[in-house]
Specification:
Distance between the termini: 11 Å
Number of strands: 7
Largest sheet: 7 strands, mixed
Helix content: 10-25%
Number of helices: 1
Length: 88
Amino acid sequence: MQAHGMLFLSKTPPIAKPAANGEFGLTLFVVDRIGVHQVEPWALIWSGPTAEKFWKANQTALRPGCALSVKAQRMRAHAKNRAVPEIQ
């Protein structure tokens, strides 16, 4: 599945750390503004060297409300035991 759209960082700070296998992982907590009074929270999980490069270049600018233009390929949605969809 592929998708492209505008998402906004939530108040929850991003998580940037290596996984158990040593690969860098970045989790961004965002909202999709579906309508004037409707938002949908998401957790975006991105791993690998491109995620680490993005984090190093942009971490100071990633503040709550920051708009992100997201283009995803081969994305998967998971919702097990979570209140929000997890998009990988």
